[in-house]
Write a structure and sequence with these properties.
heterodimer, A: mainly beta, 5-stranded mixed barrel, 1 helix, globular, B: alpha+beta, Peroxisomal Thiolase, Chain A, domain 1
Chain lengths: 148, 394
């Protein structure tokens, strides 16, 4: 785990961090911890957050910390700026990361780590917590970096 | 027990559309475009517009059924229907819902339509402009994942990589649409041909599989079809085009949030295509002409694969321009120019083209087609697709 400067320029929409369904995730991210939903009924992880377990229909979903490691399931590198904040910024890479230790749930983030970071399906990655302390309210994004 | 089916129970009796414009260039307001398309479809069917008693649409169309009913002075409204989901995933579903309404007796004469004026309203290709991302979007937008192309591109990356499919296969899809548009006076891209070199040198929208010409246009216009019970259609000016099969929806958890669908690299047709063929009582080998919604060429590829029209391992070999052209190709595709080059009317223009092909009045006419398929917007949830046939297929 480490921190880095922001992957994308300022001005993109900020995440809503205080919605009841997802607030524990965002609170933990501020502390550099990766939390996801885990069903207390069947013991399986699920993502994104939902009120019910899609497997056993239990509403008893807990938040548990998972190891912030995974592998790239897919990726894309947008060039065309779809938001004014991205105009002139150039291409950036989005990765879909699978977490094998959490029932293969998948998460979205940016691939960080400099120009040497070539996205590749199957590449091992670890989370990089990216604090946005200047935001009001402040929040932390979870980004990903290729390991090794 | 009576078989539950729409096969042969309803027909498209009329089709209509406005002039198609580049986005922002329509002189008419969006609602006026909708009115013009409805009137055109009624005129084509030889039916008094006041006799329309239902409207079915999709993609959060802003031209509300009640306003249309009031503006057109229809005698009574018996069916108003909005199919969930954005974009063109619901194009075939809207036609099917209209057919279900007339077959069930809920209505007699239903318009399925789409109206879009992206000059008057926001464009799809621009990301969210809100300062805060709520719900699922909180896990997407802050990472610069906001546009439809960006939502779908990772499905394409995964599928193409897993199956070793080259970008040239997608290029053939784009070339076919542009080729067909050159002879179509309705096509916005008529007079703007596309060749391999122009495609290959076009700018990246998203690496690794979305160049500019892999992405649809954005346009202004409206299009509509008029759906009536099969018996009624026989007495109208055009040969009836019957609904043989229709299906909508998605496979298990295809809309799982934050890209967590178990079967991810999919256009969401695995179960839809099965149900479609089952109702239509035919298979992929029976399709004479194909209209497949191009939001992005990668989605067309996935749609073809999931409807059994192309095997992934044969995609590189089969998806070449010559195979996709009317009249002589092995699988004529998007014969009016489609979303890429005729008009991005969220696929309603594809339904109109399928009808023209079966009436044998298309500009790029396939020889004597009996069965046409329309595949709605791939990778959206829910998706839908449609099989239409001539009298001879009943």
């Amino acid at each position: 785990m480490s921190t880095t400067k922001h992957a994308l320029p300022p001005g993109l929409p900020a995440p809503s961090t205080e919605e009841p369904l997802s607030a524990p995730y965002w609170k933990a991210a501020r502390e550099g911890r990766l939390l996801v939903q885990k069903c207390q009924g069947c013991g399986r992880h699920q993502w994104g957050p939902e009120w019910i377990c899609h497997r056993c229909h239990s509403f008893d979903l807990d938040w548990v910390e998972v190891k912030p490691r995974g592998s790239i399931y897919s990726w894309e590198t947008p060039h065309h700026p779809v938001h004014p904040a991205l105009t002139g910024h150039g291409p950036y890479t989005i990765v879909l990361v699978e977490l094998p230790e959490a029932d293969n749930i998948r998460m979205i983030g940016n691939l960080v780590g400099g120009s040497g970071a070539e996205p590749r399906i199957g590449a091992e990655v670890e989370a990089v917590f990216e604090p946005h302390d200047e935001a009001s309210p402040p929040y932390t994004l979870v980004q990903w970096r290729i390991v090794g | 027990m009576t078989e539950r089916t729409l096969r042969g129970k309803a027909a498209i009796a009329g089709i209509g559309e406005t002039t198609y414009y580049k986005h922002g260039q329509s002189p008419d307001a969006e609602f006026k475009l909708a009115l013009k398309a409805v009137l055109a479809a009624c005129a084509d069917a030889g039916i008094d517009p006041r006799e329309v008693d239902g409207f079915a649409t999709y993609g959060n169309d802003r031209s509300e059924a009640t306003r249309l009913a009031a503006a057109l002075g229809i005698h009574e409204l018996r069916f108003s229907n909005m199919h969930w989901g954005g974009g063109g995933g619901g194009v075939a579903a809207a036609v099917a819902n209209a057919a279900a309404a007339v077959h069930s007796g809920m209505a007699n004469c239903v318009i399925a339509f789409r109206s879009l004026a992206q000059g008057q309203f926001a464009r799809y290709g621009k990301g969210a402009q809100a300062p805060m991302a709520m719900g699922e979007d909180a896990f997407l937008w802050p990472y610069g994942l906001m546009s439809p192309a960006q939502r779908f591109a990772m499905k394409i990356t995964r599928f193409m990589t897993e199956n070793g499919i080259r970008h040239e296969a997608l290029r053939a899809i784009a070339l076919a649409s542009y080729h067909h548009a050159q002879s179509n006076p309705r096509a916005v891209m008529q007079g703007r041909p596309l060749d391999e070199a122009k495609y290959d040198s076009s700018r990246w929208i998203i690496e690794p599989f979305h160049r500019l010409f892999d992405c649809c246009q954005e346009n202004d216009g409206a299009a509509a079809v008029l759906v009536v019970p099969a018996d009624r259609a026989k007495d109208l000016p055009h040969p009836p085009v019957y609904l043989l099969g229709a299906a909508q929806g998605g496979h298990h958890r295809s809309a799982a949030p934050v890209h967590n669908a178990p079967h991810y690299a999919s256009a969401h047709f695995p179960t839809v295509a099965r149900n479609l063929y089952e109702m239509a009582k035919c298979g992929p080998g029976d399709i004479d002409v194909l209209q497949a919604y191009e939001n992005f060429t990668g989605g067309v590829l996935l749609g073809l694969v999931e409807h059994g029209l192309v095997k992934p391992e044969e995609a590189n070999e089969f998806l070449v321009k010559e195979n996709l052209l009317a009249p002589t190709g092995r699988m004529p595709l998007n014969t009016s120019g489609g979303n890429l080059a005729e008009c991005y009317m969220h696929g309603l223009e594809l339904v109109n083209e399928a009808v023209r092909q079966l009436r044998r009045t298309a500009i790029n006419q396939v020889p004597d087609p009996e069965i046409a398929m329309v595949i709605g917007g791939p990778m959206v949830t829910p998706v839908s697709s449609l099989i239409l046939g001539t009298e001879g297929t009943l």
